[in-house]
Amino acid sequence: MKALVLAAAALPPLYRAAVRALLRRNLVALNAGDPRPLFSSYADDVHFVFPGRSSWAADLHGREALEAWVRRFVEVGMEFDPDEIVVDGPPWSTRMCLRYKDRHRAPGGEIVYENRGIIFCRIAWGKLAYYEVNEDTEKVTAFDEYLGARGIRADV
Question: Structure pTM?
Answer without folding.
Answer: 0.89
